[in-house]
Amino acid sequence: MDWSFISLELPLNNSALIFFIVLTIILFAPIILDRLHIPHIIGLIFSGMLIGPYGFNLLEYDASFEIFGNVGLLYLMFLVGLEMSISDFKKNKKGGICFGIITFVVPLLAGLAVSHYGLGLNWVASSLLSTMYASHTLISFPIVSRYGIVKSRSVSIAIAGTVIAVIAALTMMAVVLGIAGGGAGALYWIKFALGVIAYGALVIYFYPRITRWFFKKYSDNVSQFIFILALVFAAAYLAEIVGLVGIIGAFFAGIVLTRYIPSVSPLMNRLEFVGNALFIPYFLIGVGMMINLRVFTSWHSIWVALLMTAVAVFSKWLSAIIMQKSFKLSSAEGRILFGLSSAKAAATLAVVLIGYNMNLFDAYILNGAILMILISCTISALFTEGAAKEIALTMLNEEDNTKTDKLPQKILVSVSNPMTADLLVNMAMVMKNPKVKLPLYFLNVINEARHDNPSASKISENLLTHASKIAASADIPVETLTRYSMNVASGIVHTIKEKNISELLLGIHHKANIADSFFGSTTEAILKGTNKTVFIAKSIIPTNTLTRIIVYIPEKAEYETGFGAWVSRIANMATQLGCKTIFYGHRDTLGQIKGRLIREKRNIRVEYHIMDKWNDILMLTGVVLEDDLFIIVSARQSSVSYSPNLDKLPSFLSKYFANNNIVILYPEQFGEVGDVTYFSDPLAISVHQNHAYLNRIKKYFTSLFKSSRAGELQ
Fewer C-beta within 10 Å: the chain N or C terminus? Predict the structure, then answer.
């Protein structure tokens, strides 16, 4: 057999073979390292060293690796910004600012002293090299994301501190380079300041508006994914134009866009998948390909490398210790701060290459920086992995101890209209607690009383398949149910009983009449047939484009059995959407809501407004906007919080909120479920109701007969 068609020339130049090798490393490195209990990041970097030009020379560090590496770094910083909400930053603002200052100043001063007195560099070169020590890359962020502790206090502090330290280091680098290049005049700094201000205003003002417009107009998942990536890389490029660096622009875009990308959503799942499966591993492999251990052939080169590495690692460790002691953080939180802030990567190499090309550094400094990247990334991954496990276990134990809702959270979504299916599924996903692994239940009831639609079964199957695909794309387990019943209400009620459902979500089309749809015979039959929590939703715009959640609560709502459940569901929605929640209700009720949110440690933006009288609800007509979700907590007639004023809801909503996003919420209540008459079924009767009615008639005639006999006797 002729094997001459196989080329063994190294480095390999066949694009298919190159991509195959890279994907094989991305696939098997985590599998092998899991058995050795070594972080995946280390394996990807070491794999890059082995296959790169300074290893076995299998692959060349060409333009493709440079492009994918830069894209991976930008993607990593974008995901970091996407995971950091404004509320998290505000909550840990003081700690983040302090850590940013500490982790910048301590390495800067240590690096300045060692560079000048230990390595013999002049003050300009020492200042430039010290900016390398002051900055760092969140290369271990995928580890904390994998353990689900991104929202923890220590990680939020580390992320905020990273942004401050990197911006300060890059600004100082620009100043030093300006001085080294002959000095930058005042005009340069005026242009720089104006450019940064204009850039910030553009992203903050323009990005939210164009994103909301695009998401309202185009619901296609692929289009939304491409649109978000286009905004991210545009922000990175514009940041470079005004004098910043691309990673700051990508991070800034992530912070601005997190409002429109819920953490539990198909779009978020796609963004994380593509980044973690391709771009970020490519970046890590590329970092490894740049490391050349062959240059350390003399004791002087080894000494320079070890000295630089010691300064970089020790100064970041000292910064984390100072922060831990100052803010009384736990040992694991201190190690997380050190692990996330100790890695050096692309920014470090960029600083050293710039100094080397300007003849400020020699080859020993360049090689020392390469070894420092390898050691710092390894230490960062090891410390982050160990601390992340400990923090994850601690958070899990705290969650078990503070859990107030012991009942299983089973949400049933009644899917009947293709026009409302997407909105209902997305609303159910943000209502669901992401830590609860129970599936979402999707139900379609086929009315057996109607025989005019022979394709009802096929329509039901297609509708449920479409709904399940939406949820499955966000990695949410799903169970689809098709039920044949003489009417929709009985089918839903019986499914609730059989599956032990805790909450029911119904929807109506946004063009339907509110009064007829919310309070028709089907809805009344469902409310009479079950005492579980019922949400009836009318959505006009996509869930992730909502700006606020406005909740009206009647007096004594806190005495209902399902009070805690619906407060938790609204808190879940506010957390996932990142929007402000405004509660209107009685003083006592608001106090109970506030207390529950504190006990559950809900970190959401919330406001409380006292509204004691039903007539005051008219004030909300000027408060609820078209991008808000208006939730009205109603009550069944037999419940504690029921008021005759709630009977005015149909006309009130039809008159004042016909074009708004509305949810009518009926809390769960204890008690026997009453017998229900389904008016759509002519054969259905309520035996108990008829029996009671006959008894009343019998008693009336009996009393009438007795009174007439008494009159005769007199």
Answer: N
